[in-house]
Design a protein that fits this description.
Elements (H helix, E strand, L loop, with lengths): L57 H15 L7 H16 L3 E13 L4 E6 L3 E3 L2 E2 L6 E9 L16 E5 L5 H10 L4 E5 L18 E4 L1 H13 L3 E6 L2 E13 L7 E6 L9 H20 L6 E6 L7 H9 L2 H6 L2 E5 L7 E6 L1 H11 L3 E4 L4 H7 L5 E7 L16 H18 L4
Parallel strand pairs: 5-6, 6-7, 7-8, 11-12, 11-13, 13-16, 14-15
Antiparallel strand pairs: 1-10, 2-3, 2-9, 4-8, 5-9, 10-12, 14-16
């Protein structure tokens, strides 16, 4: 596949979708934007007129989603396609007039090549299984016991000494596993609640091998359990490897980073990652472009993290590498994660920012003080954060997470929420 370049913006003016009006900058917006028609603010870099107008354009954002999800495809951490994605992002940011920086970081990971799930009774059959990230390697051989979605009330006393079969959904993976282990399980199999395979992350402290399988293989095991007992052997095989990933950072030519807008750009293995998280990347890139055209980007920086699906490693590496003075300058970090599919919004983190964003945009939004993912990395070191996510996409981490399901309206709403949070952070009306 040839190298992909960011879409030529002036060529995309044709055939734009009908969008809800969202004016990020039109003439002179109070404090957040400069007067585009009256010339740049002192010290602002020259922006090419070919970059289009100062309004957020969801059609342009959709072109980024398509380029990443359809053009590049799955972007697992430390893969060649993850690197290609980072280069795409850097090229776009540079064309907008930002100072760009590439952070390189290495991390210890495990390779699960060779993980085995073999049915011993009543059939002799090998299923395609993946060791969940964070699972310990190891072997378990026992009867399979169906445990619903892994909630305590669904777990049978017969689970002790056996292997739990649970469905993805309703609880996070670590909670499912913890419930099963508390009931005595010596291994856990999680099957997908959508067609196809998936991968997932576990928190630390997992003491049994945990593997994922497709919905089809899960249905097969359940059908065999209906007819009688099923015995399997799980072998979680893994070896330590050193992997390399990158963060792409954009700073204005002048000014400091009062607000950092972030998104992770890697995807789960085998998932095109249109919603998770090409949608967040695309929204942030289009915001970066529109702010640049409006000459209003002197205090807004952007960060795009690699290796998030491997344990939110990009944001952690960013915090280690950024200078202490720049870290101290952050008044807020606004993280965009899975913003392309859903009918309502989850605003997690600082309650004041969340309420300001919700009230200004009048969008249906649930509030939560505990963000997940990369936003949690910043909250853990005392930085004010707001994580913006749409609720909820059943195709996440599957091969069905493709661009056709991403809605331009969602991207525009995410941009509205982000802009409202920026204004609240900077004390603008």
């Amino acid at each position: 596949m040839g190298t992909l370049a960011p879409p030529p913006l002036n060529a995309l003016e044709k055939g734009r979708l009908k969008l809800l009006p969202f004016v990020l900058a039109l003439g002179c917006l109070v404090a957040l934007t400069a007067c585009a028609s009256g010339g740049a603010q002192p010290g602002s870099p020259t922006v090419s007129p070919g970059l289009g107008g100062p309004n957020f354009d969801a059609a342009l954002a959709m072109r980024h989603v398509q380029a990443l999800a359809d053009g590049i495809g799955p972007r697992p951490a430390a893969s060649p396609t993850e690197t290609k994605t980072e280069q795409y992002i850097l090229a776009a940011l540079k064309s907008y007039g930002y100072r760009i920086d590439e952070q390189v970081f290495q991390y210890q990971s495990v390779s699960d090549d060779g993980t085995l799930l073999q049915v011993l009774e009543p059939d002799n059959r090998v299923l395609n299984a993946r060791l969940l990230i964070g699972s310990i390697p190891g072997q378990a051989e026992a009867q399979v016991i169906a445990a619903g979605s892994g909630r305590p009330e669904e777990i049978s006393f017969r689970l002790a000494g056996n292997i739990a079969l649970v469905q993805r959904g309703q609880l996070d993976f670590s909670e499912k596993v913890a419930n099963a282990v508390q009931a005595g399980a010596i291994g856990v199999i999680i099957y997908n609640n959508q067609p196809g395979p998936f991968v997932g992350n576990l928190q630390s402290g997992i003491t049994v091998p945990v593997v994922s399988i497709s919905q089809e293989d899960g249905t097969y095991l359940l059908s065999r359990l209906t007819a009688g007992s099923v015995k399997v052997r799980v072998e979680g095989r893994a070896q330590e490897v050193v992997r390399t990933s990158h963060n792409a950072i954009a700073r204005p030519a002048f000014g400091v980073c009062d607000v950092l807008v972030s998104a992770h750009y890697d995807s789960a293995p085998n998932a095109p990652g249109a919603d998770d998280n090409a949608s967040g990347v695309a929204t942030a890139l289009e915001l970066a472009r529109s702010l640049a055209v409006a000459r209003s980007f002197d205090d807004i920086c952007f960060a795009f993290f690699g290796a998030s699906e491997a344990g939110f490693l990009g944001s952690q590496a960013f915090l280690k590498q950024v200078t202490s003075s720049e870290k101290a300058s952050f008044k807020a970090v606004i993280d965009l994660d899975t913003v392309g599919v859903g009918d309502s919004w989850l605003l997690a983190g600082d309650s004041g920012l969340a309420r300001s964003a919700r009230d200004e945009t009048d969008l249906t939004s649930a509030l939560n003080e505990a963000p997940a993912g990369d936003a949690a990395s910043f909250q853990a070191v005392g930085i004010r954060v707001l994580q913006i996510s749409a609720v909820e996409d059943p195709r996440l981490h599957t091969d069905s997470d493709v661009s056709v399901f991403v809605r331009p309206l969602q991207l525009e709403q995410a941009a509205k929420l982000t802009t409202a949070a920026i204004r609240a952070t900077l004390g603008q009306p």
